[in-house]
């Protein structure tokens, strides 16, 4: 369930495409005093790399088979069976988690994008790491298409003329504002079609 805390959290989100990029972030992102949680650890290959850079790492996966194999292959590391959506159990780990690495099969493509964003926001608001690194080509592409509007002084003047009573100083929609090209494309897409998204 979305709440204000989720959307006001200042967690940095790093979206990567493919396992190479996902692991490449580790030396740049993880610090020696970090407590890292990997969700979707499979056999623990990335968890083992994380362990070389962090103070403590826990690898978690929904599959008991994967966790069993990870424990056999890497007996010195800490692996747990855990559903990434069970955030209560993440809190029960009792770890002051500073970084989350997230690599969940089924959530890295376009069809899983909304669920993935909701899950990241839940971690940001409840687990409160400073950074979430996610393996999802769809999220990376989405992020590349997003730019925060910096705010424009002339528009503020226009709001004053319109006399809008928006909460928190938000701008009212401007009927004459040009639509970015992508919006035109979305409007024209065939109903029910996911192609090209
Ligand atoms: C691509 S593999 C992870 C590979 C691993 N991160 C690595 O770098 O070697 C994706 C994993 O996500 C796990 N998974 C899928 N849904 C999950 C969920 N809801 N909670 C936890 N793990 C999940 C799968 O069992 C699978 O092992």
Task: Please provide a written account of the structure.
The protein has 2 domains: 4-145, Vaccinia Virus protein VP39 (Rossmann fold); 147-197, no CATH class. Helices cover 43% and strands 15% of the residues. The chain is built from 9 helices and 6 strands; from the N terminus they run H-E-H-E-H-E-H-E-H-E-H-E-H-H-H. It has helices spanning 4-8, 18-29, 45-53, 64-73, 87-92, 113-127, 137-145, 153-162, 181-188; strands at 12-16, 35-39, 56-61, 78-81, 99-102, 131-135. Strand 3, helix 4 and strand 4 form a beta-alpha-beta unit. The protein is globular. It starts with a helix and ends in a 9-residue tail after the last helix. Residues 19, 39-42, 45-46, 61-63, 66, 83-85, 103-106 line the site of S-adenosylmethionine.
Q: Estimate the global geometry from the Cα principal axes.
A: globular
Spans of at least 5 consecutive residues with low confidence: 171-177, 179-197
Instruction: Give the radius of gyration.
Output: 20 Å
Provide the helix percentage. 40-55%
CATH architecture of the largest domain: 3-Layer(aba) Sandwich
CATH class call of the largest domain: Alpha Beta
What do we call the CATH topology of the largest domain?
Rossmann fold
Q: Strand-and-helix sequence, N→C? A: HEHEHEHEHEHEHHH
Strand pairing plus helix content: what structural class?
A: alpha/beta
